[in-house]
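By way of example, what follows is a protein record of this kind.
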Amino acid sequence: MGHQKVIETAVAEAKRRNIRSAVLTFDPHPSVVLQGNRHVQYLTSPSEKAALIEACGVDELFIVTFDQSLAQLRPEAFIQHYLIDLQAVFVTAGFDFTFGHKGLGTVDTLKSYAGNNFDVEVVQEQLDTKEKISSTRIRGLIQSGNVEEAKRLLGRPYTLSGTVARGEGRGKTIGVPTANIEPMPESFVPGKGVYAVKVHSAAFNGVRGGMCNVGYKPTFHNEEEGVPTVEVHLFDFEQDIYGEHVSIEWLTFLRPERKFPSVDALIQQLHHDRLTAQEIVAKY
C-alpha cells in the first residue's frame, strides 16, 4: 500500500500536467550486490511487478540493473543520469527512499539537487495500526500463514507462480488428487499449513478454487527434508496439467500441517478442509 501511494501520487500529477508517468525500479534486490545475499525471496516476480504497475495506470516502466557500478554512483550523478537526463519534471518518492553510494542520497538530497529541473513530492510513512506498512512486515505475515492480513497491507491477495510438476502421486490414491507446484526461483513461499486458494492458469482458461498444502506431509514422512512442497487440490478438476504455468492466489489459512494417526484420519480431515475451503472460495 505504501508503494501504491507513491505511484498513485505520480500518476495523478502526470494526468494533471498532461504528461507521461513512469516508475523507476531496480533488479536484482540491492542486498544481492551490497551484502552478497544469494537467497533473496521476492514477493513479486519481475513480470508480476510489471503487470501490477501497469494496472496502476503507469505509462512507462524503467528497470535499472543494480550492480556495483550503480552502487558506487554518487547521489548527484544518479539524479543527473536517471532523472534529469530522462527529462523528469516531477518526482515522487517515499519518505525513506535512499539512493547513490552507501545510500547517502535521501529525499532531502533530491530536493536540494532538483533546482529548476523538476519538482519533488515526498509521500509520508503509510501506517497501519501505528506500524509501518513494509515488505518486511508483509513477509512475516505470509511466513506465519496470515495471508488475510498480508492481503490487506498489499491491497491485493498474495500470489505465487510456478509450474505443475510430477510429485509422489499419493493424492490420487486417497481420493484427493493434487497438482505439485514448483514455485518460480526466488519466490516467497507461505508458511507450512493448509490454505484456501484460487488458481489461475491458461490450462483451464481462467480461475478455479482449491486448497493448498505447504509442507512435508508428516503422515507419510518422518523427517522434514529439503524445501517444503506446494500441492494444490483443484475443486472438480481432474485433467492432466503437467508442465503448465499456474498462479496461486492465497485466500485464507485453514490449519497447521500435522501428522495424523492413520491415512483414514487424514482423508477425513481433507474432506473437511475441502468443504471449508469451498465455502471460503465461494465468498471471493
Observations:
- The chain has two domains: 2-132, 157-283.
- The chain has a mean pLDDT of 92.
- Residues 38 and 187 are 13 Å apart (CA to CA).
- The two ends are 21 Å apart (CA to CA).
